[in-house]
Amino acid sequence: MTDPRVALVTGAARGIGAATVRRLAEEGYAVLAVDWCAGPDAAPYPMPTREDLDAVVAPYDAARAYLADVRDRTALEGAVADAVQRWGRLDVAVAAAAVVSGGRSLWETPDDQVDLLWEIDAKGVWNTAAVTVPLMLTGPDPSGCRFVAVASASGTHGLFHLAAYTAVKHAVVGIAKGLAADLVGTGVTAVAVSPGATDTAMLRQTAALYDDADVTDLVEHQKIRRLIEPDEIARCIAFCCSPAGAVLNGSVVHADGGFPA
């Protein structure tokens, strides 16, 4: 019996991160599900709990929970060390940790919101790559190793009253593209996946930023004309993580239902 491929997923307690943990585990991966399960004072809505994270991994024998803040590179190094101690390798990293904040024009957006989004949504992806990719490069099969950054449709398009969120998701796309360039010839690949309006707590928070808005109003911006399910994005991410996903190296995968319409 061959050893399972091993994945580390951040932002794993709910939403797309949680769906990705489930999808990879169901496809036979060993998965370290990483989340902070807490929130900084500037976070504009409740963060997931340790109970949420434990519930994600509970059904799977080869999935484990790990508490770490993606802003803390040392904490992420501990997560990587835990994965290697458990399973002896790391093949895949999915950087899905993110928060959303906004609801004002750029010039009215408080500095603490900009800093929060930069530190978690962009620098968190950078930190995740910095601690996982070197291990992939020295692992048993670099040609099968994948780094996937979860961006957003806003990483390509500007969104009303979400200038800071738009900026950091553009940065996530840039991190993935720059990383792919650094990895030329190594076999390890990097890709960004950009979801559209997906049925998550973050989307509900996004809708709450606008007066009298509902999550169903957001589907008007994508040709699919419905909310995307987290598992639909997770299936896309799982392909990017697979050996066959090498062909997507350096790409932005627009899993956005045709945004904008």
The percent range for strand residues is 5-15%
Largest sheet: 7 strands, parallel
Q: What is the rounded Rg?
A: 17 Å
The chain-level structural class is alpha/beta
Net shape: globular
Distance between the termini: 48 Å
Number of helices: 7
**SSE order:** EHEHEHEHEHEHHE
The chain-level mean pLDDT equals 91
- In helices, the fraction of residues equals 25-40%
> pLDDT below 50 for ≥5 consecutive residues: which ranges?
none
Number of strands: 7
How is this fold's topology laid out?
Elements lengths: L5 E5 L4 H12 L3 E6 L14 H8 L5 E5 L5 H15 L4 E4 L15 H27 L8 E5 L12 H20 L6 E5 L7 H8 L21 H12 L10 E2 L8
Quickly describe the structure.
With 261 residues, the protein is an alpha/beta fold.
Overview of the molecule:
The protein has helices at 15-26, 50-57, 73-87, 111-137, 163-182, 201-208, 230-241, and strands at residues 6-10, 30-35, 63-67, 92-95, 146-150, 189-193, 252-253. It is of the alpha/beta class and 261 residues long. It is built from 7 helices and 7 strands, in the order βαβαβαβαβαβααβ. A 7-stranded parallel β-sheet has the order 3-2-1-4-5-6-7, sandwiched between helices. The longest helix is centred in the middle third of the chain and has 27 residues, at 111-137. It starts with 5 loop residues before the first strand and ends in an 8-residue tail after the last strand.
